[in-house]
Amino acid sequence: MALTITIAFSAVVGRAGPLEILIFVMIGGFLYELNRQIVAQVNIDIGGSITIFMFGGIMGTITSLILGFSAQKEELVKRTNYTTSRFNTTMAFLGSAFFWVFYPTIFYDVPNIAATTGTRTAPFLDQNGMINAYWGISACVVTSLAMSAVMNGRIRIKDLMYGTFAGAAIVGTSAPHIFNPVGAIVLGMIAGLLQPLFNLAEEKIAKGRAVFSTCAPFLFAVQGLLGSLATGIFRAIFNNGEYRFNSSLYPYPYRWAEAGEYYRATFISFGIAIGAGVLVGLFSWCVTAQTSRDYFEDVAYWIVRDDGLRPQRAEVKEEEDIKGAHSYIGAVNWLYCCACNDLNDLT
Amino acid sequence: MYGFYARTASYNIFVTDGLREYLAAVGIAIATIIGLGGIMSYVTGLKWSGFGFALLITVLCYQYYFLVNAFWTKTDIQPTNRDINNQPTQT
């Protein structure tokens, strides 16, 4: 649930604060659990292509569309503070690397989920689920890198960064149902080929408009939808009677009934996600969208300079005037001011 | 050097179901807070908002989930073959 709500909130980060987070958690989380239990009637969705990525992405997208009709529409169109720097990009890239490492742990508690829901699930889920997730994400990152180099001549860090999340979104639900490494790698490659194109499309759609999202729609929602559709295909072609890795891709007989169950769950989830996005968006719009604030700046919600312990900048200057930079306190304060100025220059 | 090897428990660790759930929750918390928090910090002015709001969402959800799970479980949407008093049903 935390992953879902964070994915949804990533679409409106910079335009929403703690109050909107409360709305996201209360309403979005309530409908998330409803959606998850409905999908669990069909089969378990451990990796979360349907219930986490697609649901969160659609909910965030709808909310961001509604919040686009706010009091500061012109400010959103210009979005002068919506810039990035090497420091921020590096932090985002590190976050992507952490996600690559820790996302497959979602498959670790599978035996506890599988025991309560059904008998039509593949065994050894905790073994092949994690490794398939690693294969899928890795293949997606490599393919995104190559695709970005082909499209742009050089590598765009954004394409590489989003490759991790795209790979996770597309391989999530399928991972426990894949018993051949080729399946996971092919899924990852498909996501990696599509994600740079989606990034380009997202930029073109958002250009000059107030209604835009940071990274939710194409990255999470569409990749999650593709992953859920791929799960149906894997369920149709792989026989759960052979619980082992094999090199055979012979699919006959197709089991379309099982695939249809997954598609039914996918589109039910799609509808609930749209409803959740509309509810959350309307609540947020009514409560907070009409207030004026600094968009895409931490100062709107955080006390950035003063943590109550360090002297204020005005006091530091006075300290320097009295004691000079040669005293211990003056030197420490002088160094602190230099450091702050340097950090400001970097950003 | 002995302190390097000292442990609070003298028995081997057992991988119970509860431990598996805890490790999965820890992994997802790290992936959410650091992973998604990092990617939300992509914009220059949102360094603190990205990580801070990711942490806030995670801690709220970890507390709130048990309430909504209990609510929807009692509505019996996901068939568990148990009635409202946790007794096995006839089917």
Set out the fold topology.
The complex is a heterodimer of chains A (347) and B (91).
Chain A: H1 2-9, H2 18-42, H3 49-67, H4 73-78, H5 86-102, H6 110-117, H7 125-152, H8 157-171, H9 181-206, H10 217-237, H11 256-287, H12 313-323, H13 328-346
Helix pairs in contact in A: 1-2, 1-3, 2-3, 2-11, 3-8, 3-10, 3-11, 5-8, 7-8, 7-9, 8-9, 8-10, 9-10, 10-11, 12-13
Chain B: H1 2-5, H2 17-40, H3 47-74
Helix pairs in contact in B: 2-3
Structure in a nutshell:
Helices cover 68% and strands 0% of the residues of chain A. With 347 residues, chain A is an all-alpha fold.
Fold and architecture overview:
Chain A is mainly alpha-helical and 347 residues long. Chain A is 68% helix and 0% strand. In chain B, helix 2 (17-40) packs across helix 3 (47-74). Chain B is flat, with a radius of gyration of 20 Å. Chain B is mainly α. Chain B starts with a helix and ends in a 17-residue tail after the last helix.
SS summary, helix count of chain B:
3
Percent helix range of chain A: 55-70%
Biggest pleated-sheet summary of chain B: none
Poorly predicted parts of chain B: none
Q: Say what oligomer this is.
A: heterodimer
Shape of chain A: globular
The total of helices of chain A stands at 13
As a percent range, the share of strand residues of chain B is: under 5%
Number of strands of chain B: 0
- Poorly predicted tracts of residues of chain A: 113-123, 243-249, 316-331
Average residue pLDDT of chain A: 77
**Outline of chain B:** flat
Helix content of chain B: 55-70%
